[in-house]
Amino acid sequence: MKNLFFVLLVCIGFSAFSQENITSSQAKDFVGKEISLTGKVAGARLFQRPTGDMLLLNIDKPHPSNDVTVVIEGEVISKGKFSEAVLMGKTIKVKGIVSIFKEKPQIKLESEANLTIIE
Known about the structure:
Layout: H1 2-17, E1 20-22, E2 34-47, E3 54-59, E4 69-73, H2 74-78, H3 84-87, E5 91-101, E6 104-108, E7 115-117
Parallel strand pairs: 1-2, 4-6
Antiparallel strand pairs: 2-3, 2-5, 3-4, 5-6, 5-7
């Protein structure tokens, strides 16, 4: 009985911490959830603001047809590792929580470790 309880506890624990692997077109169905998304950067734009720079990445389709936008700002963008030139046309994997901005899904990058360039 103890073994069954232990196995059940481990399975529940793994499912509670697992992330969904989704495509850009599925993002709208995962608002408020932590996901892992893989897609190609079809558009990138850097906004230089007094409050700090912000880089927007349109995944799989250019703006305004894109299904999801990745937002890189704050400390992550100030480190200089990610830029329009580096990411444009690359396939990337992003981990984060899907939210909505102006009726479109977005993922704010909280850490540079949450973005991987695949190719």
